[in-house]
Amino acid sequence: MKRREFLKKGTVATAAAAATTVAAPAVVRAQEKYEWKLTTAFPPGAIMYSTGPGSLSVLCDTIRAMSGGRLDIQIYHGGELVPAFEGFDAASQGIVECNGWVSYFGAGKVPAAQFFGAVPFGMSMQGQNAWFYSGGGIDLWHEVYEPFNLVAFPCGNTGVQMTGWFNKEINSVADLDGLKMRIPGLAGRGYARLGVDVRLLPGGEIFPALERGVIDAAEWVGPAQDQVLGLNKAAKYYYTTGWHEPCTVTEFAINKTAWESLPQDLKDIVYHACASSNLAMHSHAEAVNGIALDEMVASGTETRTLPLDVVAALRKEMDGVYEELAGGDPVFAKVMKSYFDFKEKHDKWASLSEGVWHSQLRGA
After folding, report:
1. CB 181, CB 215: distance < 8 Å
2. What is the pLDDT of residues 240-260, one digit of tens each?
3. pTM
4. How far apart are CA 294 and CA 301, in angstroms?
5. According to the 3-state scheme, what is the secondary structure of 94-122?
6. What average pLDDT does range 187-216 have in this prediction?
């Protein structure tokens, strides 16, 4: 009996030792720490982009906390490590591990990526997120970024944006001719067809350019973000319709080699932290935009809505922009088809739900 008991104990001990030997490398791998650098296109004080709920700074903090410090991302705001619009290339080349911006800033490099950022006459945040998370949008995003050695996720959404700040009223299409305006992406192409002199400036350069008359008009985001930049002190008229950016997505782009070096649990943390940040930014924007707008109106800002004939002219020109770009770029055409096919289906539901609520029930 004693011999059998000894052999039994020995077998258990041997098995336990073997299990420990096998498990040890996995434990070591799981505890490996990663230190990344994140560049952004935004100035340090930009709320929702650089600071506060939904911002890239909070996203880095969230990933650090969720990973127990195993993934530590140091953020560098626009111009601190590389120029504001060069972070995409830096991440692509592996100079840094990741970059945060809106994809239309890279329209010259990847025209198709603009559908992952802001689409003139496109979908609301609800539709955009439905396409991302349930309509194959994120997978298509990764496919588009494959040649650039990047993967990307949505990590913020400002919702409907304002048309922008103007130093004169816009009463007709003719008032756009010769107007010098800061406006990025696809919308800039539409404006240009109507005679607008389109300029692309980083956020930190908009106020001085508008104040000194270098530009006549500028689009940034919405009341809360625009107020932080002081744009209400540089122009009087604040226009709306949201035609150019029914929603605007912040992009978290990661060098693919760095991404693939992460264990699966850290990949999951990054994915879910980005999704949480996406919701947080939009929620915060909806909470503070009304307050900021009231304050600016009280200090002299005059709100205006673009005339219907101007919006109709812009819609017509955007149809031409989409047709032109799709005709010369098969990747653009593929993403455009996916986006607008999804939008067509989503619009049928939105018109019977959100559309009716806005037209008949809101404020009742």
Report:
1. yes
2. 999 999 999 999 999 999 999
3. 0.88
4. 9
5. CCCCEEEECHHHHCCCCHHHHHHCCCCCC
6. 96
Q: Which amino acid, one-letter code, is at 50?
A: S
22-77: per-residue pLDDT in tens?
443 444 455 799 999 999 999 998 999 999 999 999 999 999 999 999 999 999 99
Give the whole-number percent of the chain exceeding pLDDT 90. 88
Q: Are 204 and 43 in contact (CB under 8 A)?
A: yes
Decide if 191 contacts 314 (C-beta within 8 A).
yes
Whether the pLDDT of residue 123 is over 70: the answer is yes
pLDDT digits (tens, 9 = 90+) for 328-349: 999 999 999 999 999 999 999 9
Structure tokens at 222: 């919405």
